Amino acid sequence: MTEFMLNGTPVSSASPEDTPLLWVLRDELDHKGTKFGCGIAQCGACTVHLDGTPTRACVLPLSAVAGRQVTTIEGLASDAGEALKAAWVSEQVPQCGYCQSGQLMTAAALLEANPSPSDDEIVNAMNGNLCRCMAYGRIKAAVKVAAGRGEGQA
Amino acid sequence: MSRLAKPDLSRRRFLAGAVGGSCIMGLGLALPGCSPRSAVESLAAARPDATFAPSLWYEIDGTGAAHIFITKAEMGQHVGTALARIVAEELGAAWSQVRITHVDSHPKWGVMVTGGSWSVHTSFKALSQAGAAGRQLLQAAGAAHLGVPVEACTVADGQVSAGGNSVSFGTLVSAGLPEADLSAEALDALPLKAPEARQLLGKPVAALDIPAKSAGEAVYGLDATLPNMVYAVPLLPPTRYGSVLTRLEDGAAGSVPGFLQTLRIEDPSETIQGWGLVIAESLPAAWKAAEKVVAEWTPGPTAEVDEAALFAEGARLADDPAEGVRVVDHGEIDTVLAGATKTLSAHYRTASALHFTLEPQNALAHFDEAGHCHIHGGNQWQSLILPVLSKALGLAETDITLHQYALGGGYGRRLFGDQMIPAGLAARALGRPVKLVLNREQDSRFDCVRSPSVCRFDAALSAEGEVLGIDHGVAAGWPTLSMAPGFLAPGLNDSGRFDSFSISGADHWYTLPAHRVRAINNPLAQKTFLPGWLRAVGPGWIGWGVESFMDELAHAQGVDPIDFRLARLDGAGPNGGDSPANEGGALRLRAVLEAVRERSGWGRSLPQGSGLGVAVAHGQERGMPTWTACVAEVAVAGDAVSVKKLWQVIDVGTVIDPGGARAQAEGAMLWGLSLALYEGTAFEAGQVRDRNLDRYTPLRMKDVPELDIHFAESTAFPSGLGEPPLIAVAPAIGNAIFAATGKRVRDLPIRLS
After folding, report:
1. Interval B677-697: pLDDT, tens
2. How many CB atoms lie within 10 A of CB A20?
3. Are β-strands B687-688 and B683-684 bridged in parallel, bridged antiparallel, or unpaired?
4. Is there a single domain that holds both residue B392 and residue B478?
5. What is residue B316's predicted lDDT score, i.e. its pLDDT?
6. Nearest CB to B667: which of A95, A99, A104?
7. Which residue of B has its CA nearest to A128?
8. Same-domain check for residues A107 and A63
């Protein structure tokens, strides 16, 4: 039995310890906002925060989260997180939307570490998150809006 | 080019009637015997009315809310918002009271397909008329309620008003609206709003699907669950077709906790060939077990096919002027070529490319107690896969319901719901709901790939370099031949049938003295894989060749590439357009080209190693053109190509949702860039080589250039936008590379090394 904190609430899983966290979140704990894209930590759709650090849940074994804090899109309630979610709407960011939970989690970790990132810092932080619809311009604009700078473009 | 179906529009009718405190309104094709009562009751009771095939249903309830049923798939284009805006505009509804519902595949909804950038174009007239017919009904009821003549009433914001008094839609519906039955003639006589009177179309709007997608709350097919379901992962054969699963044993999988069994798939429709499944209580268990089961195949006949063989076969066919279904043929091109002082010939090729929807293909299938099959998952063409599922499952189409979800990417992949078949077969075999999920590598292997293609061009030139004629052969795998052969179109002079989606773009709007287009199926491609409709389809590979070769001809003649194009975009004869949908013809393409010349500062001097290139496109089909002109600025250093900026001017006619339109243009242009420089794979040993992001590398944020996108002001009939802005990007880049370096690139993806 592996115990950890999910969005501030204690949870446990009886799955084998090598089970990727992604499937524990989605199929055992019914937190389906975190998505499956590539399975090799290259697309970012499964990004969650592990003790505040953006982490790819598709390759993270359950054993690695024992006793730690996991935050998913469902629990993204920090000031930065709320600002980002609002900016995603105001900038009309999502197209198909499938990657956006991961985009938001990566962006939230960026703004929590660096509240006023430069354009280059945004691109460097977000480059690992694939958007297959290629809504990159709006993602970047929305991060700037959430950071309190930039008018956005939508 | 051919449309999928050519309905008898004289059978159009608008039918409305009160049911359960609401007023239900529908517009569609009606057979004799159809009545408003039978039509609205069929909707309310969720049963089909065999005499009525709707293209739109909507309902106004007692609160005045307008519920618009969306049969199109939501895959990022905010289609429900756009379609609802069109109805609401003419209805006079308050936008805040408009609700949309994406519907399942119940036959009562009529034909269901989302693709081809068609949704707005093909729906606009019906949605506008359906809204206007509803407005007329409400206006008459409102006039009676207010005790004034109908002509005295205005309808806006969900109210009928006259002389300072108003009554809401909700009040009128609650009081009971009369039935309505309008013929096609009556519909065509309805007054539609003049463009300047519109209150919603062309105005900014927040897309209705975006809030949920910005909070992780949108529900995709992969998120669907049912009680007691099990998970299935496939064991894919070495070839798409013809492999035989000769051995399937549990092996060591029995030791994996949660493993249930293996299952051999026998598909009577022969769509799924040689599959096994691993069934388990969880996905991780299924994947773990899949590594331990013993599966062996006798490979199919294409197990050794590689990309080079596919290209060689395409070139062999394209090079033979006798090959191909004639799609364009005027001016005796063989004679012109034989008599020409000079000729210019070239091959343009595009490599295999993947859809790579970020949500891998999946399906959740379930049989209810009555034996009805329910399949949950995102799909773009329900009307295409239902007959296939019917054959595979041995059920009537009416015994199968596809439940729609948000699509985690469509791009044409989800036009074919083939992964639903093994899910359905497994659910019946196991007597439990089965959730089938492909992992990323399997999703790539099982993709309906954009076929490798070969274009062969032969131009006849005068001594002065004037173009006297062009012969153009295009060889590729044809999606329509495999998946929807009934939609193959007849060629000229009984030269055979062809896939119009795999030749569109070759029938361009340049006026040429002689021009022949030969549509050629590459049979080796057809046998090796399932060719797919990938975003922009034929124009995505044909535009690469046409617009690059135009550039070659311009340079051969020593003429500026924009001037060269403008000289041939004269709107002469058939290039003047022949319907409201392509009104203006080549002159509109000319206008966007002139506009992009201005915006891009064409002709300005650039640093060494930099260049500007231009290309135009007319979207997906001559019958519904979206006029685009693109300029690319590139910088080349050694073998490295960097795209600095892309300009595009787009004339799509009337813009419905400006923000959504721009988003589609942004995404499609970056797709064009991605396919030009970042994406592409190759067949190796009968399968695609690059199956995950370690090797298949779509464009990322750091690769995004500056974009300058401009929509032409227009009140012309709306066309489509999901695909057209993709087409001109790659040739504009290739032509810019030539301008920068003098090196002509003829293969996609572009590799200078």
Report:
1. 999 999 999 999 999 999 999
2. 23
3. antiparallel
4. no
5. 98
6. A95
7. B700
8. no
Interface mutation target, options B645, B701, B706, B721, chain A, most CBs of A under 10 Å: B701
Bridge partners of B159, per DSSP, are: B156, B168
In this structure, the answer to whether residues B613 and B715 fall within a common structural domain is yes
The whole-number pLDDT of residue B4 equals: 47
A119 within domain boundaries: yes
Range of the domain at A49: 2-75
**Total domain count, chain A:** 2
Q: Are residues B518 and B428 in the same domain?
A: no
DSSP output for B722-742: SSHHHHTHHHHHHHHHHHHHS
Contact of A40 with chain B, judged by CB distance below 8 Å, is answered with: yes
Give Cα B590 distance to the centre of its chain. 26
Interval B558-595: pLDDT, tens: 999 999 999 999 999 999 999 989 999 999 999 999 99
Six token digits for residue B246: 């000769």
**What does B536-583 look like in DSSP terms, one character per residue?**
THHHHHHHHHHHHHHHHHHHHHT--HHHHHHHH----GGGG-SSGGGT
Q: Which amino acid is at B265?
A: I
Cβ contacts of A19 on chain B, cutoff 8 Å: 282, 284
Cross-chain CB nearest to A38 (options B663, B666, B693): B693
Output the pLDDT for position B180: 93
Scan for tokens 């194009």, then name that residue.
B565
- A82 vs chain B: nearest CA distance in angstroms? 9
Please give the residue range of the domain that contains residue B278.
Answer: 221-301+361-437
The closest of B207, B56, B198, B40 to B127, measured between CA atoms, is B56
- Reported ipTM: the value is 0.97
Distance from CA of A83 to the nearest CA of B (A): 11
Note whether A33 and A70 are same-domain residues: yes
At B3 the pLDDT is: 38
Q: Quick one: B429 and B533 in the same domain?
A: no
Mean pLDDT by 10 residues, chain B (753 residues): 54 90 90 85 72 85 96 96 97 97 87 91 94 97 97 97 97 94 94 96 97 98 98 98 98 97 98 98 98 98 98 98 97 97 97 98 98 98 97 97 98 97 98 98 98 98 92 98 95 96 97 98 98 97 98 96 98 94 96 98 97 98 97 98 98 97 98 98 98 98 98 96 98 98 98 94
- Which residues 46-75 of A are in CB contact (within 8 Å) with B? 72-74
Nearest CA in chain A to B666: A135
- Residues contacting B56, CB < 8 A, separation 6+: B26, B27, B28, B68, B69, B87, B123, B126, B127, B130
Instruction: Identify whether residues A24 and A56 lie together within a single domain.
Output: yes
In chain B, % helix, strand, coil (3-state, to 5) comes to 35, 25, 40
Taking the Cβ of residue A138 and every Cβ of chain B, the question of whether any pair is shorter than 8 Å is answered with yes
**Which residues in chain A touch residue B219, judged by CB atoms under 8 angstroms apart?**
32
Phi, psi (deg, nearest 5) at residue B410: -120, -75
Mean pLDDT split into 10-residue runs, chain A, 154 residues: 98 97 98 98 98 98 98 97 98 98 98 97 98 98 91 50
Among the partner-chain residues B406, B411, B671, the one whose CB lies closest to the CB of A97 is B406
Domain count, chain B: 3
- In sequence order, the β-bridge partners of residue B346 are B457
pLDDT the model gives residue A150: 61
What is the domain-level CATH number for residue A63? 3.10.20.30
In single-letter form, the type of residue at position A67 comes to: G
Integer Cα distance of B451 and B410 in angstroms: 17
Judge residue B460's burial from the number of C-beta atoms within 10 Å of its C-beta, 0-12 exposed, 13-18 middle, 19 or more buried. Answer: buried
Are A19 and A64 part of one and the same domain? Answer: yes
